Amino acid sequence: MLDIRLHCGPLYVTLFFTYEVTMWSEESFVGGHLALDFLNTVGDTDKSRSANLLTSPEALLDWLAVSGTEGRDAKVTPPLQDDVDALIGFRELTHRVLSASVSNRTPEPDDIQAFEAHIKSALGRAHLDLTVTPPPWIATKVPAHHWIDRFVLLVDGFIRSPEAAKLRQCERCSWFFLNSGRGRGRRWCNMSTCGNRHKVAAHRKRRQVNDKG
Ligand SMILES: [Zn+2]
């Protein structure tokens, strides 16, 4: 009995810790495309991109599970911390490239080159799944490249889809989303977070002006 307790104690702590640091919810998946939800795995309420949420292999697996896209690959090729670090590098590179694109700026030449290199490498290792129409590219199963390629191909699929024309960035934070509305349309990644923050800030500003007047 004592043995069981000794073994269960650290296990419980580990699980609790993992849960604490990787709390994804429906609010983490408001981008409208899984590639955008991946780019939105930061928790900042501003444009800083300093609050990374993809902190560990467990966080990545948890994100995949909540997204409903967890594949068998998670069991066959479990991600390592190096994979997660590479994903964060690619996520930030893609974020810079797409941020420039949505604000009609040309991305930095180094970023364009690196972004293209990622896609070419991933495609060079991928194969087409011809059982599906249109056939998607499937990432290599080679462990050293699998995870980065899987997300590079996800992003590549998005930027070449008709959905990419609807890409918008939240006016308050750095998150992306698809704007399906007409006219000016949606301005916030999520009305209940950034939309509300904007309303509160605007209200405060109006009150300050009135107080001064
Ligand atoms: Zn936002």
TrEMBL record:
What is the name listed in the Swiss-Prot or TrEMBL entry for this protein?
Zinc finger CGNR domain-containing protein
Q: Which domain of life is it from?
A: Bacteria
Q: Where is the Zinc finger CGNR domain?
A: 167-207
Q: Which InterPro entries match?
A: ABATE (IPR010852), ABATE_dom_sf (IPR023286), Znf_CGNR (IPR021005)
